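Practice problem: predict the structure.
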Amino acid sequence: MERNHGEEIDLLNAEISSLKNELQELTESIKSFMQGQANQADSKLLKRVYQMRNMHPDKRLSEKMEELCALADKKDVTGLITYLGVYSSGGRQSNWIRNEVCTDDLLALIEDRTAEKVLNCIGNSDRLNILLALLKRPMSVAELVSECSLNSTGQAYHHMKPLLAADLIIEDTNSKGVYVVQSHKVQGIIMLLAGICDLVDETHSKGTWDNEQ
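Answer:
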């Protein structure tokens, strides 16, 4: 029987490609395991929490992480977070520092449906665009209509109503008819976006946020 060398070569190439993929997966698994071993070696088990060390090049941040681990262990809570930031745009600035916020209290926001209410309030493309526009600079309703590609001022007011009710935006006390994001709510919006950034980060995992119909 005459051999089909072309078909045999194709099969060999397919097998080689498969072996390369398996080797790559094995290499990644080994790297992940070694990293885990290194992290565990650079940590100290307290009562129930591993006190992570040297997690960041900035010594101050690494020390803060050690403090949070120790305090979470001492208080016997699921965790603690500390965050700070600054946002300046459109002539307005917000600075914030929240220290040792208990994650148990954050998880409770799901249980009492507060998280659901907030996400339902702003989980609309037009409302998000309005918040984005007002984060950039104070704007009148007419400017919002243009900036957010809305059909009318009526449509703008329709979407502004829940944002006003939630005290996310207000009319500027110094400029009648001009709206701004409440200064003490800026941090919440920015930190929510930071959380979304973490959720869509594909550095350590792959997923899709597109709903397939």
